[in-house]
Amino acid sequence: MKLKQIYTIGILFISTLVITIFVYNFWGNKTNLVESQVFEQNMKAQSVIASQQSLGINLGRAAYFSTQWIFVDLLKQGSEWITQNLKPGGPWDSKMKEYIPLDEDGYPLEIPFLAPNGIPQKVVILTANSSYPTGDYLLLFDGEGDLEITGQKMTYRRLGSGSYLITRNGGDRINIAITRSVKGNHVRNMRLIMPGFAENYQEQVFHPLFLERLQGFTVIRFMDLMNTNNNKSVTWADRTRLTSHTQAREAYGVAPEYIAQLANRTQADAWINIPHLADDDYIREFATLLREQLDPSKIIYVEYSNELWNAQFQQTQWLWRVGCENPDTFIPDESNQGKVQPGCNLMLSGINFHVKRLARIAEIFDEVFQDTFSDRIVIVAASQAVNPFLSQQLLERFQDTKLNPKGYQPAALAVAPYFGGNIQREKVLEGITVDELLNLAQANLESRVIANALKQKQIADAHNVALIAYEGGQHIVPPPIQRQNKNLVQNMIEANRHERMGQLYREYLKSWFDTVGGGLFVHFAYVFAPGPFGSWGALETQDQPIDKAPKYQALLDIIDHLQLKQ
């Protein structure tokens, strides 16, 4: 085994040396790509890491309505504050949130506070949902004040100056209002501990079942947990802290420390998404935190934002604008006479800025990780599964010294090869059956999805990078105009629960690995409640019986299949 490893390392070293000499002799003084490199990026080694065939998982966001039990302290998944009039009779949300006087962790300094209209206000945080277990929940806080707790099928009583016992017998949400908080010793450090964890919640941060059902997945993608889409983080000071009143800040995501902790607890590699607005210092601090806190044996996949081709996200609209405004990235297009950046090629200018920023991110991670950069960091260039032109342009533009003066290269091209997306484009009738939905999904898988993936593999191979999937799975979602069609939505949910879906998953993933030759595949997603916007979860609830979760069963089967191949 040792001789084989030494032989492999020797071959990689010689190959890298030969390639470097060739590139230098070929390009000469035409570019600065090789001559200006001040780093030692072993892209081949990084691509080998990404091309290893394994299954990863995308986590969902932290939210009170999520059926994913991330923390044993439910207030870490609590909502942002809602304001209400202190006296009964006002609106559910008085929309005075911006006037709450807050401490550095986001707790009100004083309750009640006066709104501009002169009406005294209280604040409410929402937590839990019907997926959570019955039993005794312990509510704790520091400071001096009074809380009011409401919800269905529950009772509560005060235990002492900073604690309440909530007994839950079913029901749905738990609403916690601060009705009095004393200035100078305000209510803070609120915790709502799930049944069974009152004695060890400080050590057992993550719910055991949440951790247990992540076992076997080699990579965790933190895109949603970081609230990457429409993120507002610019500076490191914007980040969520461990002590923040909630980890479910809508535009910021969880504290970065929890990413390292969760990867360490599961022994999974971490896939992070750098917020599109993040400045260089944010990136450097994040990289430093991961270097210091993440298990040094773990790989870090680094992606710039999420789906920078997808116009429904604010980050894509922003990318197009800055790509058109930046002289280094601007590509003219006189045929564009629309309202959005007329005279500019939005897509190509956006790709240019994507490349420019991702190259800079790679440079910062190299500066932070230094000798371990090539061993631990996989730079990911993410594209659209059905758009090989976009992938080709994205990878080619890393050769542009104006965009990439130091010559950093991605190690992987990532796409999201969902199947069943054709259903949104079909004239789906209300009376369509579960079997008919599954037939459409299977036809799409066999006729389009794998063919598109093979085209992407050719592009990846031509650029000597791995082809991986940042997301994937079924995509049986009603068209927007039919989201209120209850029968159609329910049939789509039932299609996801059908045993045939499990068989489709096995066929799909074996085709990705065996026919396409794809590397890492990161399923979307872990735990999600199904509904009119899709049935994304491998599990519908954290404690769903596995024999009732055909997608999750299939993922476990594929994990076993891949382990047997090794």
Q: In this structure, how is the largest beta sheet organized?
A: 8 strands, parallel
Radius of gyration: 25 Å
How many strand segments? 19
Low-confidence stretches: 1-38
Helical residue percent? 25-40%
Instruction: Write down the CATH topology of the largest domain.
Output: TIM Barrel
Average pLDDT number: 92
Structural class: alpha/beta
Tell me the CATH superfamily of the largest domain. Answer: Glycosidases
Count of separate DSSP helical elements? 13
3D shape: globular
- CATH architecture of the largest domain, by name, is Alpha-Beta Barrel
Strand arrangement in the largest pleated sheet: 18-17-16-13-12-11-1-19
Distance between the termini: 14 Å
Return the domain count: 2
CATH class category label of the largest domain: Alpha Beta
* Percentage beta strand: 15-25%
Could you please describe the fold and organization of this structure?
- With 566 residues, this protein is an alpha/beta fold.
- It has 2 domains: 42-69 and 207-565, Alpha-Beta Barrel (TIM Barrel); 74-193, no CATH class.
- 33% of the residues lie in helices and 17% in strands.
- It contains 13 helices and 19 strands.
- It has helices at residues 2-27, 43-51, 208-212, 256-266, 280-293, 314-325, 346-369, 373-376, 388-396, 434-462, 486-497, 499-516, 550-565, and strands at residues 55-58, 82-85, 113-114, 120-127, 135-142, 145-151, 154-160, 163-168, 174-181, 188-193, 219-221, 269-274, 300-304, 332-333, 343-344, 377-382, 412-415, 466-469, 521-523.
- The chain is globular, with a radius of gyration of 25 Å.
- The two termini are 14 Å apart.
- Mean pLDDT is 92; it is low at 1-38.
